[in-house]
Amino acid sequence: MTDIVDTAVAAGSFKTLVAAVQAAGLVDTLKSKGPFTVFAPDDEAFSKLPAGTVDALLKDVPKLKAILLYHVLPGKLTVDEVGQMSTAATVQGQEVKIDAHKWHLHMNPKINDAKITSKDIVTDNGIIHVLDRVIMPNMDLTCPVCSMGFMNADTLKAHTEKGHVAEKTVDATPMPPPPAEVMQAAEKAPEPMPAPEVVTAQVAATAKAPEGLFEVMCDGAGTFRFHLKAANGEIIAASQSYGTRENALKGIASIKKNAPVAKTADFTKAEAMPEPTPKKGFYQDPVFEIMSDVGQKFRFHLKAENGQIVAASQSYMSRAAAEKGIASIKKNAPTAKIVDYTIVAT
Length: 346
What we know:
The model is unreliable at 165-195, 200-210 and 270-282 (pLDDT under 50). The protein has a seven-stranded mixed beta sheet. The protein has a five-stranded mixed beta sheet with strand order 9-18-10-11-12. Strands 14-15-16-17 form a four-stranded mixed beta sheet, covered by helices on one side. The chain has helices at residues 4-11, 15-23, 27-30, 43-47, 53-59, 61-69, 79-82, 153-162, 201-206, 245-258, 319-332, and strands at 36-41, 72-74, 87-89, 95-99, 110-111, 114-123, 126-131, 185-186, 199-200, 213-218, 224-229, 235-238, 241-242, 263-266, 287-292, 298-303, 309-312, 337-340. It has two domains: 4-162, FAS1 domain (Roll), CATH 2.30.180.10; 180-340, PH-domain like (Roll). With 346 residues, the chain is α/β, with parallel strands linked by helices. Strand 11 (224-229) and strand 12 (235-238) form a beta hairpin. The two termini are 35 Å apart.
């Protein structure tokens, strides 16, 4: 497998994008470990820009760099995961809008006004989704010196007053989307649990890879999320959002406790519907519930003893694949270490 840049070069349909990456000095960045999610405009997408735009951008490195970084997200997100988001913070600093209201009908999400024409091109340091248009950041809220973007004028002013950095520091910390079943933020923990052992990202980088790994992140809204990765690096479960880091860690502890003993319930048949969530004070056996959407894809979530959803899966093309995902959680969750990307190293 090759990295993002080499994959784009080999494809042959990203000549303008590759030239722009080279001109902006971003080759080493996009060949680094990452991981990154790149919304890559192909040559046809660049041809839709007004005449002379590409030549002008190649001569304006700060603006070119800002536009390119606006096409990059931190983390490795499949189209399924992108489709569960409404916005996403880019490496450039500003957000892209995601329109996925027809995603369940197998229509790819839109990124701003661009359509995803090809998806899930996996590389060794990330994933590529091809766009039919070049998307543009708000240049009025972008620093003309270092290319950093901001969401409002006050933060841009504060940045300008503090001076500029020579190069933007790329944060490759993964930021998973909320699962479809649990879009709302949850302030309360699923159930009280003892605090688990947590290591920082720097410590994890030097340690031997565990069987599984929980990664804790803080998203752009200031809430906390986590996902569970299997030994092969694939995300097999994602959490709801939590108001505090402590509650997110309690959610992880709940998965560690409930996943190994949870039974599996199949709700993919039309006549079989999930039981309503127990009222407060009532408890049930933990359960993995498998469901199918109108696109005939399969998903599951894990309910804890108190009936709260503590983890949800990506979508699978078959019920058998979903069952393998459940088996992977049962195997990986109990011994998975926790890497907390919200702890700032000092």
